[in-house]
Amino acid sequence: MSVYTRVTEHDLRALLADYAIGELEDHQGISAGVTNTNYFVDTTLGRWVLTLFEQSDPVELPFFMQLMDHLAAHGVPGAHPVARNDGGFLSSVQGKPAALVYRLEGASTQMPSPEQCRALGGVVAEMHRGVGGFTARQANPRDLTWIDAAAVRLFEALPADDCRLLVEEIEFQRQATEKHFNDLPRAVIHADLFRDNVLFRGDRVAGVIDFYYACHECLLFDLAGICSDWAWRDGEFLAAHWQAFLAAYTRRRPLTEAEIAAWPAMLRAVALRFWVSRLIDAYFPMGGPDVKIHDPAPFKHLLLAYRDDPPGLTLP
Amino acid sequence: MSVYTRVTEHDLRALLADYAIGELEDHQGISAGVTNTNYFVDTTLGRWVLTLFEQSDPVELPFFMQLMDHLAAHGVPGAHPVARNDGGFLSSVQGKPAALVYRLEGASTQMPSPEQCRALGGVVAEMHRGVGGFTARQANPRDLTWIDAAAVRLFEALPADDCRLLVEEIEFQRQATEKHFNDLPRAVIHADLFRDNVLFRGDRVAGVIDFYYACHECLLFDLAGICSDWAWRDGEFLAAHWQAFLAAYTRRRPLTEAEIAAWPAMLRAVALRFWVSRLIDAYFPMGGPDVKIHDPAPFKHLLLAYRDDPPGLTLP
After folding, report:
1. A293-303 as b/e, with b when 16 or more CB fall inside 10 Å?
2. If B93 and its partner were Cys, which of A51, A112, A296, B98 is the partner (CB 3.0–4.6 Å)?
3. Which homologous superfamily does the CATH classification assign to the domain defined by B114-308?
4. What dotted CATH number matches B9-102?
5. Which of B13, B15, B18, B21 to mutate to test the interface with A (most CBs of A within 10 A)?
6. Mean pLDDT by 10-residue block, N- to C-terminus, for chain A (316 residues)?
7. B48 contacts in chain A (CB < 8 Å)
8. ipTM, 2 dp
9. Among candidate residues B87, B114, B105, the one with its CA nearest the CA of residue B20
């Protein structure tokens, strides 16, 4: 959520004419995240976030809109697109596809408590139970094929050790896909459940945001992503945080034997995916006036840690 | 919103199995309002209100659910029904039709400020602009036909002066309908926009609730209802409150000549409607363990005040 495209007051007044949310009061760019341009937009009727989709395939956007709308309709706390007067969710601002979503009250935290991890477990379990039979499909845009192509671009930029690690891990994932992943339960997952993308009010989840990597994938992928971000601090694994998440999650969705067997490989899949995408952002930046680049190194360290001694998926 | 029907923890656990909003944490009956039974319901995923519909025609309920869902989808702040796992909005609790809606954060006020009236004007104008082309229809269940039938029941209970006033006003409304009301702009209106039914956070409208009298009616009816409740205190007309509402409202929806001409008659229509429905509730109560009866007298006084000296519909 960096500011790649400047949006003017004139743009916003023209946009708001297509909605029923009153008149413009204030707006401000948001400098966080990596993929889209985001603005806070305040109107006489409420507070909203405007997202300009900088990279998304316009064909894919209705899927995200429908998913967010569907989750909100079913009570799963999340950002929620506002319908236009004509009933659609997508507008055009500065020639880019754009959407207004409800601005959630709450804040993300870089230092979650075990209690917050427990609350997250309850929310993610409901999402994974296939909320209200949401059946639309979208493939994972960062699957092994994408990682493989990205690696080819990275080989000329990375030190030899890193290239070797990439090659090994891509081959490992190829085997793991065949051996494990094809048998796992799948549904629409968030696929980007970093601490940045969950807002809390106290110990409650106020909402999950940034669904723009959501796709039909192994449910276990989200768990490995959460483990990799929420249960590590300064290179230390936080067992109590992870156990709290897992206890709440498995209460609503018990894990299968196949998931438990696939877990160490899925941890490595997630570490590889985010290491590679961050390397691409760092070595081949998209540009923009106020773009934040995330350090790839922590995911390399996680990948190595997961090869040696992966944390468990079961409760003690 | 009184408690007519007791709901048990067992009822709620069974209900929540059909939703994706987590597990029961707490519940409590709400003693306010007049028509339905309402409970606060807290779950691991959020805070909700359960409404049991005590009087509504089950055929009409989907209209209210669709309207609330539609307004929320378009960003008009309002309570918002939660969809069940099967996609529907209606459940059954203790043999009554029931719905879970989002619990809004905010509070109603009995002493609104002019600034709050201004905020309300913006919200009501958006609702009246026919948000996103909501086209479903529902007739006004408290129209002149209903008032006429209610008056027949009341004649045996009321003093002679009140009976005479009723007869006069019903006849006046019959003529006003023909002379004025048939030409007025219509759409789906809330029709019960009392201070109880609007929640604020500071000067902002957090949400409009209790849409269970919503119907296809003259837009002017809502304005007369708001004037009658928000712009009077202890028998005094609050000109600044009314002007603040009107300024914000007409900015988004200018009034027609026909509406300005019909205004004094519409004020009397609204005062008559609520006087009669409160008389019915007072003389023929529905019963229930914790039912609040509103005093009919203020609406009789308003009716008399409107006959003498109705407040204006235009800005100075």
Report:
1. ebebebbbebb
2. B98
3. Aminoglycoside phosphotransferase (APH), C-terminal lobe (3.90.1200.10)
4. 3.30.200.20
5. B21
6. 83 95 94 80 94 84 92 88 93 95 93 97 91 82 95 95 97 96 93 95 93 93 98 94 97 95 98 96 75 86 96 87
7. 75
8. 0.80
9. B87
